[in-house]
Amino acid sequence: RYLADGVQVYGLNSGNDSIEDLLAFVDGSQVTFPILPVAQSVHETYYQPPTNSPFPLDYVIAPDGTVAYFSTEYDPESMVQVIDALLGKDSALQVSPGELDFGPVQMGEQSTLLLEFSNLGEGELELSSIESDLADFSTNLDELILPPGSTAGLLVTYAPLILGPVEGGLLLQSNDPLQEELTIPLFGQGVSATS
């Protein structure tokens, strides 16, 4: 029932109802979102595996045409959270840059880079967990709270434990309904000291 600011909520008819039945339903229920009589066309355009149904039941399409939410289980609470975020009524996490590459670092030394977090939403952003999946990488914070419209920096340090290239990830958990879990790729290469 949300059409404000370009947000569209699609209802799919995956049964055998005729277009007349659908029009009668739309008229009788006074729904304001589109009911699409051909689910296959939407499925082919927006289907994003994995899912447990060939025709996901619920979609929220962002104004830029990307899929902001889809589910085979009717979950109005989750849908409203996503829609509110798209309308700017919730927290919205932006991370810059999208990955960190430390390049070569000598064994026994370390290198530190800055990761910037911004809250583009109108609600308070809570990063409840910030942790690396490799011991080579560490951070100066393990959680963070950002008021609406604010920005904060996180220091990520690479101290190589082995020679050669490594790939890890910085695992983030937040209350941003569009990306409750996010992984920032981390790269580095341990090199031996030279005379």
Q: How do the strands line up in the largest sheet?
A: 6-13-12-8-10
Number of helices: 3
What general form does the structure show?
elongated
| Unreliable runs | 1-7, 46-56
State the share of residues found in helices, binned by percent.
Answer: 10-25%
End-to-end distance: 69 Å
Derived structural class: alpha+beta
Percent in strands: 35-45%
> Could you tell me the mean pLDDT?
77
Rg result: 22 Å
Please trace the helix and strand order, writing H or E for each element: EHEHEEHEEEEEEEEE
Number of strands: 13
Q: Give a short account of the largest sheet.
A: 5 strands, mixed
Structural write-up:
- This protein has 195 residues and is of the alpha+beta class.
- The chain is 15% helix and 41% strand.
- It has a 5-stranded mixed beta sheet with strand order 6-13-12-8-10, with no helix packed on it.
- The longest helix is centred in the N-terminal third of the chain and has 11 residues, at 19-29.
- The model is unreliable at 1-7 and 46-56 (pLDDT under 50).
In short:
Helices cover 15% and strands 41% of the residues. With 195 residues, it is α+β, with helices and mostly antiparallel strands.
Tags for this entry?
single chain; 195 residues; alpha+beta; five-stranded mixed beta sheet; four-stranded mixed beta sheet; 13 strands; 15% helix; 41% strand; elongated
SSE diagram, text form:
Blueprint: E1 8-12, H1 19-29, E2 35-36, H2 39-46, E3 58-61, E4 67-71, H3 76-86, E5 93-96, E6 100-106, E7 111-119, E8 125-132, E9 137-139, E10 144-146, E11 151-158, E12 164-174, E13 181-191
Parallel strand pairs: 1-2, 6-13
Antiparallel strand pairs: 1-3, 3-4, 5-7, 7-11, 8-10, 8-12, 9-11, 12-13
